[in-house]
């Protein structure tokens, strides 16, 4: 491998946006992908039939709504949602930035609102 092609990803720089929701891949690790998400509004209720999904908060805090409870994550906290668990994420406050770790072949299935 040519090490000249290796790249440093600056999450702070990538998180600069005016979009209400930004979700971009920042790294590929074996058969998984790391995405950076910037949220200023809730994401829709959904599940992932074939993959767990882990969230690591970088900036702000997020709520992860599950069918029976809500989990709040702060910077440097990690939470994993098992496959087939219905959930949605939303920022606590004006904005949040998080990394998600998931299978690269993961699909998202939208479900009806739970709240």
Description:
The chain has 115 residues and is mostly beta strands. 3% of the residues lie in helices and 47% in strands. It is built from one helix and ten strands; from the N terminus they run αββββββββββ. It has a five-stranded antiparallel beta sheet, with no helix packed on it. The mean pLDDT is 94.
Outline: globular
The residue-averaged pLDDT reads 94
The main pleated sheet reads as: 5 strands, antiparallel
Number of strands: 10
As a whole number of angstroms, the C-alpha radius of gyration is: 14 Å
Strand order of the largest sheet: 1-2-9-4-7
Helix share bin:
under 10%
Which structural class best describes the helix and strand composition? mainly beta
Low-confidence segments, ≥5 residues, pLDDT <50? none
The tally of helices reads 1
Termini gap: 50 Å
């Amino acid at each position: 491998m040519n090490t000249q092609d290796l790249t440093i990803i600056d999450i702070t720089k990538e998180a600069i946006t005016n979009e209400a929701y930004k979700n971009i891949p920042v790294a590929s690790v074996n058969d998984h992908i790391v995405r950076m998400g910037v949220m200023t509004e809730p994401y829709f209720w959904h599940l992932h039939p074939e993959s767990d999904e882990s969230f690591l908060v970088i900036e702000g805090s997020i709520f992860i709504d599950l069918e029976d409870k809500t989990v709040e994550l702060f910077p440097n906290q990690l939470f994993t949602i098992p496959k087939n668990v219905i959930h949605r994420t939303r920022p606590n406050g004006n904005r949040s930035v998080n990394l998600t770790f998931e299978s690269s072949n993961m699909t998202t299935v939208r479900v009806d609102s739970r709240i």
